Amino acid sequence: MTAVKEPSAADFLTHRACRQIHSFRRFPRAFANSLPLMLLLVNGVTGVLLAQPSEGLQRGQTIYREHCMDCHGTTGKGDGPKAPFLSPRPGNLISAATSTKTDKELLRTIAQGKPRTAMPGWKDALPDEDQQAVLRYLRSLIQFSGSPAVSPPPP
Length: 155
Ligand code: HEC
Prior knowledge:
Elements: H1 9-72, H2 96-99, H3 103-112, H4 128-142
Helix pairs in contact: 1-4, 3-4
């Protein structure tokens, strides 16, 4: 006959300790299981955040096309239809020289114009929000579009 050992307090303690370890172990797994869902949520939120500015750019684009494009050109490169008749020529707004200027500097030029050039001041013609909207649009033209200007040679 084998004696059945009653579980001692020590056994009970270790068992509890084990259970605790197990439940700790379970935690990361639960976390890992919900990770795809969390990524999906994060993606969704970033998607919304990324989608917002492009809607905001609509206004800036309309203003740009109406008031700026004749001189600065469709893509901001300074090659609008009026450009050949101006001295100095409208510069390239997507150049490093312009794009490294701060918002404050560019907004000042947009509001007050540029002395001794054809660049008019817009403070009386456009409300502040519109000047900011057109600057946001300029910044969007500067941004790297992701498509290479020259396609790679065929293999
Ligand atoms: C009549 C032509 C003309 C029109 C219209 C015009 N610009 Fe200009 N713009 C110029 C010229 C010329 C300059 C001076 C050369 C340069 O810096 O590009 C200039 C300069 C600028 C600069 C300063 C660039 C720098 O590096 O300092 C900004 C910004 C600018 N224009 C934005 C605009 C915006 C925005 C509009 C429309 C709301 C506009 N321009 C309309 C001709 C024009």
